[in-house]
Specification:
The structure is a single chain. The chain is α/β, with parallel strands linked by helices and 385 residues long. The chain contains 12 helices and 16 strands. The strands form 5 sheets. The chain has a 5-stranded mixed β-sheet with strand order 5-4-3-6-9. Strands 12-11-10-15-16 form a 5-stranded mixed β-sheet, with helices on both faces. A hairpin with a 3-residue loop joins strand 10 and strand 11. The radius of gyration is 24 Å and the shape is globular.
């Protein structure tokens, strides 16, 4: 409905409802008077909105407030189980899933092995099975799902929901993955690059809380990155921002062979370390086994070498963007030698005034960072639609 002054009353009401919801989300419980004072809305508006939100099961009564001498007031709060949001992270060797409640809190984590070589259709079937599995494990009805965020290796076209040309997913070129998952699940779905989703997850719940400008680097089998600028993901033209793995670095390997210019992913990633070991020793270990063999001197040499080049790239990125913080996540970040070498070289290559003022820290959300960020993307779409 639009008034004679051109005001869309439905839009205003929806905006006011979001204000009340956010107020309750940020506070465990509040009275009507407190909500009125904190939002600037009228008492009558707050009363009407709470009545409607209770009918929708979004808000519940949480008892009575302490009284300083008059009638006790009712306390209101978010009903965390009214809706749930799922975050699914599709990787080369596994699929991870988290469930978040209506307050944004992650209440369950789940993972299964998956071989991306089986292709996108097999991935969709696995996602559908995992969604039903996590619902079963948590006793949640399918109807409670308000949205699903999907995280995949990039690059992606998030406007059209297409995985365009991921170097780590063989045979996944130009896959309309968002529509495939949406049709399979029949609920609102959203697609995001894994490093962007992880950057958001760390920004909201992890190492980057309260940091508005940060760089997230995913150092694992491959190397990716995400940028948070003024609290939002910066995607750049064609959604290509943050691809630190494609930076060109001058490579001088430890074997003293002639140096050359290489992409960072080809000399600092888990895949690169695997390849170097294979070329030198003829062994073909997977990254996980390399990281689980801390006493192996050969592995240590290549981990340090790879960390060196990541550090050079981090220093260059910090000189260009001057973020408040760099967060390094992924399996390689958990290795002390790799991470500490990267930090040491990063500080050497940074402008001296920045070198010890820009924080460089490990991610804290672990392997579920991208899934957590994906769930929050679905949550935000629901809240701000």
């Amino acid at each position: 409905m639009t008034t004679s002054t051109g005001v869309n009353t439905g839009a205003v009401k929806q905006m006011n409802k979001k204000v009340v919801f956010e107020c309750l989300r940020d506070n465990a419980s509040l009275t009507k008077v407190a909500i009125t004072a904190m939002t600037g809305l009228s008492f009558a508006t707050v009363t009407n909105l709470l009545t409607e939100m209770m009918a929708q099961e979004l808000v519940v009564e949480l008892g009575m407030a302490d009284s300083s001498g008059g009638r006790k007031a009712v306390l209101y709060g978010i009903n965390p189980r009214a809706h749930v949001f799922l975050g699914v992270d599709v990787r080369v060797n596994e699929i991870l899933c988290v469930m978040a409640d209506l307050t944004g809190k992650v209440v369950h984590e789940y993972s299964e092995e998956f071989d991306a070589k089986e292709g996108p259709h097999a991935a969709v079937l696995s996602i559908e099975a995992i969604v039903h599995k996590i619902l079963e494990l948590t006793g949640t009805s399918f109807e409670r799902i308000a949205g699903v965020g999907i995280s995949t290796p990039g690059p992606i076209d998030d406007e059209h929901g297409v995985i365009t040309s991921p170097p780590n997913l063989t045979g996944w070129k130009n896959v309309p993955f968002l529509s495939m998952v949406s049709q399979s699940l029949g609920v609102p779905c959203y697609l995001e690059k894994d490093a962007n989703a992880a950057a958001l997850g760390e920004s909201w719940f992890g190492a980057g809380q309260d940091v508005n400008n940060l760089v997230y680097i995913m150092a694992d089998v491959g190397i990716g990155g995400g940028l948070i600028i003024h609290g939002e993901v910066f995607k750049g033209f064609l959604n290509g921002a943050g691809e630190i793995g494609q930076m060109i670095v001058e490579y001088q390997p430890s074997t003293k062979e002639a140096g050359s210019s290489c992409h960072l992913v080809d000399i600092a990633s888990g895949r690169a370390i695997e390849q170097r070991i294979f070329e030198t020793d003829g062994d073909a270990p997977r990254l996980k086994s390399i990281l689980q063999s801390p006493g192996d001197e050969t592995y240590a040499e290549y981990l340090a070498e790879a960390g060196n080049y990541l550090g050079i790239a981090i220093g260059s990125v910090c000189n260009l963007l001057n973020p408040a913080m760099v967060i390094v996540g992924g399996g390689l970040a958990e290795n002390d030698l790799y991470f500490e070498t990267a930090v040491r070289y990063a500080r050497q290559y940074m402008i001296s005034d920045y070198a010890y003022r820009i924080r460089i820290e490990r991610a804290t959300l672990g392997e579920f960072a991208s899934a957590t960020g994906a769930a929050m993307i679905a949550f935000n779409h629901w809240l701000y639609k």
